[in-house]
Design goal:
The radius of gyration is 21 Å and the shape is globular. Helix content is about 45%, strand content about 10%. It has 2 domains: about 180 residues, 3-Layer(aba) Sandwich (D-Maltodextrin-Binding Protein, domain 2), CATH 3.40.190.10; about 150 residues, Periplasmic binding protein-like II (D-Maltodextrin-Binding Protein, domain 2). The longest helix is centred in the first third of the chain and has 18 residues. Helix 6 runs parallel beside helix 16. By secondary structure, it is α/β, with parallel strands linked by helices. Belongs to the bacterial solute-binding protein 1 family.
Length: about 450
């Protein structure tokens, strides 16, 4: 098991209400609003801002030096450094960002072995938190940090940072991983409409293809993008109970429900000329490029649509496109009865228990820290006391509102719950097996067998 018992019970709640809320809110709002300069609520139905004003008190840490490790790069790293700069300003500490490599748990292992672990690490998987605790690297949150977490997070977000009842993780960053972004001009030229079901998605793809543009961009060079595709299809098609069982390896990857999901995925991945560059090209395309190539080239980009989470907005901006006008989005279409709601996130975990590290965790658990990065775009916070008005456009404000209103009824990214050897390592496990499936989507049974073999080894059962 890679999460606490309390989380396992909690996440087995139905997601139907949350899915309906999220899909409905996004369907009504994502395509209709640019609003980049509209920071306040109003008659357009945008969220009402919460009461602002910080009461957070941090200690003076003059002369203290801290290191924070994360795998973030580019704009995401640059924006997080601005959050760290505010912590420095308030406390007098000096904080250094340490770029880490995937899988971060291996990176941390080498640092620990060398006697130089960072003070805090941003871990992208609950499974990695569990490993850090099992290896006795992670330290539980102190009283002030724990107080801030309990004040600002729903029980569900608290629970996924707990191991054996103790709070180790502060979920600083969240993701809505159930979005499909599209080039608005391509859709307009093709006469394409936003799909609500998988069958409608295939019909929309054909309409786009007939207009002369390849329908999908897939960042297959990074296996996590492929696991996200699978998880959305599987959650909607197989349902939340099966999703939880597969996430814990309580059912095998040779289960018929996995066969159904892979067969469904093959309707896109295996369709000739539906994926930009074909399978070979997709496997050479990293995530940032998969987004930017959808929004460069005017109305003749390399692809019309790209599936990924709200964080794709950073890369959309790098392509020179504007969210809400050039780039729009719709909820991942329902394959079964209900559209999927898949979330992910990154948790701050203390590796060196000190006054400075505890203070930084306390700051990252506060709305003060989250609001700094929220203003910069491409970021979503699960902190329920973040003022929605700080998000830079109406699209992201409503994505944030939907996440908070979903409360505890969400499903966390399945591969992030798995042992890292299976769900979070380049060239291994689920990442590699789905890359191979992208290359040969007719081999459903062989892919299932490889997935099950890798999962059994990683879970030890």
């Amino acid at each position: 098991m890679m999460r606490s018992t309390s989380h396992t019970i909690r996440t087995r709640r139905t997601v139907k209400a949350a899915a309906t809320l999220l899909a409905g809110a996004l369907a009504l709002s994502l395509t209709a609003c640019g609003g980049d300069d509209d920071k306040s609520s109003g008659t357009d139905g945008s969220p009402t801002a919460k009461e602002s004003g910080s009461t957070l008190t941090l200690p003076k840490l003059n002369g203290t030096t801290l290191e924070v490790a994360a795998v973030w790069t580019g704009a995401e790293q640059a924006n997080f450094k601005k959050v760290l700069a505010e912590f420095e300003k308030r406390t007098g500490a000096k904080v250094t960002f340490v770029p880490a490599q995937d899988p971060i748990i291996n990176f941390l292992g080498s640092k620990v072995a060398g006697g130089q672990p960072p003070d805090v690490a941003m871990l992208p998987q609950p499974g990695a938190i569990k490993q850090a605790v099992d290896k006795k690297w992670a330290k539980p949150l102190g009283a002030e940090a724990l107080k801030e977490v309990q004040k600002n997070y729903s029980q569900g977000w608290q629970d996924i940072g707990k191991i054996d009842g103790k709070q180790y993780g502060v979920y600083y960053k969240a993701a809505n991983k159930s979005l499909v972004w599209y080039n608005a001009k391509v859709f307009e030229n093709a006469g394409a409409t936003e799909p609500k079901t998988w069958d409608e998605l295939l019909s929309t793809a054909q309409t786009v293809y007939d207009s002369g543009v390849t329908p999908f961009s897939v960042g297959g060079a990074e296996g996590w993008t492929l696991t996200d595709w699978f998880e959305n299809v599987y959650l909607s098609q197989a349902g939340p109970e099966r999703y939880d069982q597969l996430a814990q390896h309580e059912i095998k990857w040779t289960d018929p429900s996995v066969k159904d999901a892979l067969t469904t995925l093959a309707q896109v991945w295996g369709k000739k000329d539906y994926v930009a560059g074909g399978a070979t090209g997709a496997l050479q395309t990293d995530f940032p490029a998969s987004v930017t190539q959808t929004f460069t080239g005017g109305d003749q980009p390399k692809a019309a649509m790209v599936y990924e989470g709200d964080f794709a907005q950073v890369n959309i901006g790098q392509a020179g496109a504007k969210v809400g006008t050039d780039a729009k989005a719709f909820p991942f279409p329902a394959v079964g009865d209900t559209a999927p709601v898949v979330s992910g996130g990154d948790a701050a975990v203390i590796l060196k228990d000190s006054k400075g590290a505890q203070a930084l965790a306390t700051f990252l658990a506060s709305p003060d820290a989250a609001e700094i990065q929220a203003k910069l775009g491409g970021y979503l916070s699960p902190n329920k006391n973040v003022d929605f008005s700080v998000y830079p456009n109406d699209v992201q404000r409503k994505i944030a509102q939907s996440l908070i209103e979903a409360g505890d009824d969400f499903r966390f990214d399945m591969s992030d719950q798995a042992p890292q050897a299976f769900g979070g390592t380049p060239g291994k496990g689920e990442w590699k097996d789905l890359q191979d499936f992208l290359k040969n989507p007719t081999d459903v049974a062989g892919t299932q067998a490889k997935l099950e073999s890798a999962a059994a080894a990683a879970y030890g059962n």
